[in-house]
Amino acid sequence: MKEVFLCKYGEIVLKGANKRYFEDMLCRELRRRAANYGDFEISRAQSTIYIEPKDEFCDMDGMFESARKAFGIVAIARAAVCEKNMDSILQTAREYIPQFLVGKRTFKVEGKRSDKMFCKNSMEIAMEVGGELLSCCQPIRVDVHHPEIVVKVEVREHYAYVHAGQFKGAGGMPVGSNGTGLLLLSGGIDSPVAGYMMAKRGVRIEAIHFESFPYTSERAREKVLELAGLVSAYAGDINVHVVSLTHIQEELVKSCDEDYFTLLLRRYMMAIADKAARKFKCGALITGESLGQVASQTMEALNVTNCMTDLPVFRPCIGMDKEEIVQISHKIGTFETSIQPFEDCCTVFTPKHPRTRPELYKVEREEQKLPFDELVEEALAGMYRVQIKARY
Ligand code: ATP
Ligand code: MG
User: Fold this and answer.
1) Which end of the chain is more exposed for a tag (fewer CB within 10 A), N or C?
2) Does the CB atom of residue 221 touch ligand 1 within 6 A?
């Protein structure tokens, strides 16, 4: 019996004249994913994308899990395909559905007929298939109000499809449909989550990571690249641009008031990220900042760093509690890597009394003790790229 996946999309349906553009993008994304799991045909019709294996060597489970990570898809059904006649539909239901009913007490069948020429209407299809399953799957019974499982029969343009309910997809919009953003990626919990959340809204991700070798280690960098790899299972290929802040930090320590270290460093980060974003044609910066989480994330502190760029800064975690961010990091599989204890450039040379209500003119006065533009250019000149292939 041939199995296929029927992918349903959400917001894209609302895109009117642009719907096709979004659908094509989603098909391309699914084709890229499918390449790892065998020879699949990806097509679309009637607001559904079909993923069909072309031979028996396809890894169906692998493809299913990967498709569930593709943004833009709200639900996926794993269905058996059959000819469009009641004999085939009943036989397919009898052979395919009982495995899903094991241990269940109640079910119902829903019929759906997008081919209005089909010989039975939706209600008749549901009744006949329900009767067939009752006779072969005792002691299960029908409960139309609160069934434990809903069996669906969809009679579509060319074939009929029988399945035992659909699974939740990743939601959101296809990656690439909403521009490219530069993610400031640290080794922490928040920034990988921020990258995931913006990718979910269709943003393609480039990443920039600041290190401070030898104060930060080789392994701290490896950890960040691993985090990018984990996010790439959702977001696709990610370039991680690595920038050294070692010289800048050493100069800050030599010349500036310790209380301002973190703020000044973050201003350098924003200024460098701004320039890098323009170079890589990114329309926005993305950070994992959350209001009030640490001294550098009070409203005043954010203001002092935000003014280093004219680009929009997306901070999807800004209104979230740490616990909520942690929950997402568990869901996307980054948590265990994020909590590995390696130093970050923000955690070396940290002030004992960081300013939580900084005044811009005082920060600027400290900053003027160093040749800001020169140091930024020097850091950018040493920037190098690590390409992370999507872990589809
Ligand atoms: P995370 O926020 O990722 O859990 P963190 O809490 O250690 O890491 P914060 O000090 O909260 O980092 O930094 C706030 C944000 O600044 C991060 O979410 C990230 O976007 C950016 N950032 C911090 N350190 C770095 C770094 N070394 N490289 C790139 N971006 C960084
Ligand atoms: Mg943080």
Assistant:
1) N
2) no
